[in-house]
Design goal:
single chain; 265 residues; alpha/beta; Spore Coat Polysaccharide Biosynthesis Protein SpsA, Chain A; 7-stranded mixed β-sheet; two-stranded parallel ribbon; 16% strand; binds guanosine-5'-diphosphate-alpha-D-mannose
Amino acid sequence: MSRFHVSITPDPDSAAGRPRSHLDMPSSHNKYSVLLPTYNERDNLPIITWLLAKTFREHGLDYEIIIIDDNSPDGTLEVAKQLQRVYGENHIVLRPRAGKLGLGTAYVHGIQNATGNFIIIMDADMSHHPKAIPAFIRKQKERDYDIVTGTRYTAGGGVYGWDLRRKLTSRGANFIADLLLSPGVSDLTGSFRLYKKDVLHQIINATVSKGYVFQMEMMVRAKQFNYTVAEVPITFVDRVYGESKLGANEIAGYLKGLWTLFTSV
Ligand SMILES: Nc1nc2c(ncn2[C@@H]2O[C@H](COP(=O)(O)OP(=O)(O)O[C@H]3O[C@H](CO)[C@@H](O)[C@H](O)[C@@H]3O)[C@@H](O)[C@H]2O)c(=O)[nH]1
């Protein structure tokens, strides 16, 4: 007898009598482009890529993963190239840059060659789990929302693994942004979001910030353009491998960007 035991878990969708996904139809022609900005994510990239591919495949969804690496010294790009060989060029697209140019411009760079009609933006460090993506897509389809944004700060959402300083920084950044600009979203600094591509194009063209404040400004612009925004609770789990790039410079840049927006919008 084999020493290996294979356990087959019933598909929750078919168990519930739902159609076997394409995420509950009807627009199965949709394609999802995931933008993954990376800086020193060598250890995280294979895991997140595998989980993304698994999630999309299980639901019969068309997808591509666009990796925007800023010449990471840890060799992230080499890992990305290997993953491209495994998953294929149609599923892994490489959009490297010559140096560390910040998160905001990484998204702009990534979207330029995206072929999906929907764009998903998320971190590559496993703090955003791909298993939440079906909930984003279902929510989008509910009322054909322009944007679905993940929120840590609502019932069902949460943050794990941060120390008190980091929690206060995040809460403080949200509180100040909400006070000054009130874009009507409960998690302004989160970066796990689904956009219609045309919507994201217009928002990005109007967005002037660089770095981490970019996420917050995008919600301000969405409100200006009257786009419909829905929220999905997410659990943010602090990275296990590698380090956060959110240092004092990024925090100062955030506050400066916030003030510039407040005085100009
Ligand atoms: N290409 C590129 N990628 C970058 C850069 N800086 C960061 N990244 C990538 O952007 C993602 C998030 O960066 P982290 O530095 O790990 O962010 P964090 O501290 O976990 O911050 C999280 O919380 C912030 C506050 O709530 C969020 O604003 C942020 O987006 C993120 O979700 C990771 O995939 C990281 O590799 C950069 O300059 N260039």
